[in-house]
Amino acid sequence: MKHEPDIQGLAPHQALLAQAYRGLNPLARDLSRLQASLDHLRLAGGETYETQIRTLRQDIRAYAPSVTLIGQVKAGKTSLANAMAGKIGLLPSDINPWTSVVTSVNLSPRRSGSQEKAQFRFFTDAEWENLLSTGGRVGELASRAGADQELEKVRGQLAAMRAAARQRLGDQFEMLLGQTHDYGYVDAELVQRYVCLGDEADGDPAQGRFADITRSAELSVCQPALPMPICLRDTPGVNDTFMVREQITVNAIRGSRLCVVVLSAHQALSNVDLALVRLIANVPSRDVIIFVNRIDELTDPAGDIPEIRVSIQATLKSLNVPTDAEILFGSARWANAALAGDLRTMGRDSAAALLNWARAQATQGGLDKDTAAMVWGLSGLPALGQAIADRIVAGEGAAKVAHISGAARNIASALTAAAVIDERRLVERSANRVDAGRLAAALDHLAEDAERKLEQVLSAMSSDLDLRLRKAQDAFVSRGTTALVRHLETFGQEIEWTYDPIGLRLLLKSGYTVFCARLHKAAEAMYRDSALQIQALFEEAFGLSHTGFALEAPPVPDAPTPVILGRTIALDIKGSWWSRWWRRRRDYTTYAEEFRSLIEAEISPMVTALSDDHALPHAEALLVELKAFIGEQRSVVLGLAEQPLCDLDHLRAEQAKKAAIRAGSLKAAYGLLVDLGTSQIDARRA
Ligand SMILES: Nc1nc2c(ncn2[C@@H]2O[C@H](COP(=O)(O)OP(=O)(O)OP(=O)(O)O)[C@@H](O)[C@H]2O)c(=O)[nH]1
Ligand SMILES: [Mg+2]
Q: How far apart are alpha carbons 22 and 393 in whole angstroms?
C-alpha cells in the first residue's frame, strides 16, 4: 500500500487534493506498516497462520473510512463532493436536476485492481409497492392523523412519480425493479441517468431515466492524490416534505461515522431545517463537521461569516443540540475553479467576494503565493480535509489499527512460543506430547462458558433497555395526555395546543447511551477474561510460563449511533394537518384518547427500531467478536499442540531451516508492531 502520494508526479489539481488530505498520511503509514508486519509474520509462520493473516491483510486492503454529506436542499453537497473527490463534474450538480439517490463515491489511490466501476441498485418490487400503498412516511403519518388531504397529495406525488417512471421506462419498468446495473466505467452522463431527477420540461430525456426507481449508487474511481482509500456519500437534500427517501438518508448516516453537514451561507440554519437538525442531533458532535458553503455569494464574507457562525450556534442551542461541532466556511465553486486551474469560471461577483475574504484571511496568516493554491485555501477545502482526517485518525482509524495490530501481535506471540516449544523438544529429545484432545475440550468448555455468560449479560441488558424505552414512551404519552386535558379544561378547544417530542428523544437517547456504555464495559471485561484464560490454558498445557506469551484481547466494537431517533414523526410536523386534526374532533372528550393512540402509533416503530435495529445487532456484534477471537486462538493453540512430533530428526532439519527465517521475520514484525495501536485511540471515545 502506498502511504504518501508522490507529490512530484501529480497533476496540479491532484497536488491540491493531496495537500487537503495529508492529515491521513500517518494513518496510511501505520496501515502499510501493518501490512509489512503481516508479510513478515507470514514468512515466520509458514502455513499455520496463512488464513488468519490473509483475512487481516484483506481487512486492511478493504478499509476505507466513509464520510456522509447531508444538508439543505441546494446547499451544494454534490458540488462539494466533486471537489472533495478531486473530480470536477463527476456527479451532476445543478439547479435542476436534483440529487435523488444516495451516491457513494469510493476513491482509491490504487491504480491496479481497482478499475473504475459503477453499480446502481433499484428498489425492489416490495419496496416500491410499499412506497405506493402507504405513501412512504408522510403517507403513513397523514393517514394516522386523518389528514386526508395530505395523504391525497402524497399519493398524487407518488402516482406522478410512477407515471413518469413508466413513461420513461416503458415495458422495462416492472422488469427493472429489484435489479442492479453494473458498468465498467464511470462518467457524469452515466451517473446522471441514475441519480438525478429533473423537470421533464427542460431536461433531456436521457437524464434521470432510471432515477425514480434507483435506490443506491456505488461508484469506484481512482484518485492517486489520496494517501489511502476513502468513501464519500452524497445524499439528497433534507427538508424535503416529500420524505419518501428519509429512511434511506438515515441509513446513509448510519453507514458512516463522520457526517459533514452542508449549509448554504445565505440561508444559514433556521427553523425550516428542523428535519436536518433532528438528524444530526443524534450523531456525537465530534463526528459532525458543519460546512457553510457558498460564501462566495455573500457580499461581505469577512463581515458576515462571524455573524453566521453565531447564528448557527444559537439555532443549534435553541433546538437543544450540542453546539461544539466544528463549523467551517467555504465555497465549492472556488474549490472547483482552483481544481480546474481556471479562475475565470467563478464569475465576477464570486471573484469580488474572494478578494474580500482573502483580505480578511491575509491578516490572520500567510496566503499561498500560488493563485490556484490560494483560492483552494480560501475555498475551505484544505480545512475540511484536515478536519475529516483528524477525526478519522483519532477515531475509527485508530480503532482499526488497534484491532489489527493486536491480532498481529498475538500471532507474533504464538510464533515465539512455537519456537520455544520446538527448541525444547529437541533439547529434551522427547516428544513431551501435549494432550490435544484434552486441550480442545478445555478450550471448548471455555468458549461455551464465555459465550453463555456474555449472552446472559447481553440479554439481561437488552430487556432492561426495552423496559426503559417503553417506560420513557409511556411517561411521554401520559404526560402529553394529561397536559392536553389540562389545556382543554383551561382554554377549551379553540386555542391550539402543541407538544414537542424533544423530551422523548432525549429520554430514548439517554436510555440507549447508558445501555451501550454498560454493554461496552461488560464485553470488555469478558474479552479480557477470555484472553487471560486462554493464555493460562496454553501456558499450563505447554509448561511455558516464562516465554512472555501474552494474549491481547480484541478491542470492543463501537456502538451504532441512534440516528433513527431523528426520523420525522407526526408531532414534528406542525403544519396544517395538525390544526385540522385538532379542529375536526367533534367531541373533545375523545381528544385525549385519540391523541394517545396517535402518538403511540407514531413512537412505537421508532422505539422498536432503536431496540431491534440498533441495540440488538450491536449486542450480537459483540458476541460475534468474542466468538471469532476465541475461535482464532483455539486454532492457534491446537495447531501448536498437534505439531507432528514423531520424527525428531526431521524436526531438527526443519528447525535449522526455519529458525533463521522465523527469528529474522519475527524480529522485523515486532519492530514494526511495537508501538502501533496502543496509544493512539481517541481518549474521548473511551
Ligand atoms: N455560487 C455558488 N454556487 C454553488 C456553490 N456550490 C454549489 N453551487 C451551485 O448550487 C447549485 C446546486 O448545487 P448542488 O451541488 O447540485 O447542490 P446540492 O446540495 O447537491 O443539491 P440537491 O442535491 O439537489 O439538494 C448548482 O447550480 C451549483 O453550481 C458555491 O459554493 N457557490
Ligand atoms: Mg445534490
A: 11
- Which segments of 223-293 are extended strands (E)? 230-234, 258-264, 288-293
Cell of 505: 428523544
> Of the bound ligands, which one is closest to the alpha carbon of residue 98?
1
Q: 78 CA to middle of ligand 1, Å?
A: 7
- Which SS3 state, helix, strand or coil, does residue 329 take? strand
Q: Which of 265, 195, 41, 217 is nearest to 119 (CA)?
A: 217
Q: Which atom of ligand 1 is nearest to the CA of 335?
A: 31
Ligand 1: nearest atom to the Cα of 332: 31
Partners of 232 in the β-ladder: 67, 105
Ligand 2 centroid to residue 93 C-alpha, Å = 6
Q: Has residue 2 got a pLDDT over 70?
A: no
Q: How many A from CA of 96 to the centre of ligand 1?
A: 10
Contacts of residue 383, defined as CB under 8 A and 6 or more positions apart, other chains included, come to 328, 330
Cβ atoms < 10 Å from Cβ of 336:
24
Q: Is 103 in the pocket of ligand 1 (CB under 6 A)?
A: no
Which pLDDT tens digit goes with each residue over 442-454? Answer: 999 999 999 999 9
d(C-alpha 120, C-alpha 452), whole Å = 42
Q: What whole-number distance in Å separates Cα of residue 30 and Cα of residue 36? A: 10
User: Tens digits of per-residue pLDDT, 405-448?
Assistant: 999 999 888 888 877 877 777 777 655 567 888 889 999 999 99
How far apart are alpha carbons 676 and 399 in whole angstroms? Answer: 11
For the chain, give the mean pLDDT.
Answer: 83
* Apex 255 CA angle, 250 and 259, nearest 5: 75
Separation between Cα atoms, residue 444 and residue 44, nearest integer Å: 28
**Where do the domains of the chain lie?**
64-123+178-394, 434-644
Residue given cell 453537497 in the structure block: 77
Q: Kindly give, in sequence order, each residue whose CB lies less than 8 Å from that of residue 616, ignoring residues fewer than 6 positions away.
A: 462
Length of the chain: 686
Nearest residue by C-alpha to atom 2 in ligand 1: 294
**pTM: predicted TM-score of the whole model, two decimal places:** 0.86
CA of 79 to the centre of ligand 1 (A): 6
Question: Cβ neighbours of residue 437 under 8 Å, at least 6 residues apart?
Answer: none
- Ligand 2 ion: Cβ-proximal residues, 5 Å cutoff: 77-78, 99
**Which ligand has the nearest atom to the CA of 351?**
1
Phi, psi of 293 (to 5 degrees): -95, 175
Residue 210 CA to residue 238 CA, distance in Å, equals 21
CA 205 to centroid of ligand 2, rounded, Å: 19
Burial class of 666 by CB neighbour count within 10 A (0 to 12, 13 to 18, 19+): buried
Distance, CA of 15 to CA of 377 (rounded, Å): 13
Residue 218 — very low, low, confident or very high, per pLDDT cuts 50/70/90? Answer: very high
Looking only at the bridges linking them, the beta strands covering 196-197 and 98-99 are antiparallel
Cβ of residue 293 lying under 6 Å from some atom of ligand 1 = yes
Measured by CA distance, the residue closest to atom 32 of ligand 1 is: 294
What span, in angstroms and rounded, lies between the C-alpha atoms of 553 and 524? 8
- HSE at residue 332, side-chain half, CA atoms within 13 A, is 26
Comparing CA positions, the residue from 447, 463, 470 lying closest to residue 518 is 463
* Homologous superfamily assigned to 64-123+178-394: P-loop containing nucleotide triphosphate hydrolases (3.40.50.300)
* Whole-angstrom distance, CA of residue 214 vs CA of residue 233: 15
Collapsed DSSP state (helix, strand, coil) of residue 585: coil
What does the pLDDT read at residue 284?
Answer: 84
CA 678 to chain centre: 23
Nearest CA to ligand 1 atom 10: 76
**What is the spatial distance between Cα 95 and Cα 72, in angstroms, rounded to a whole number?**
13
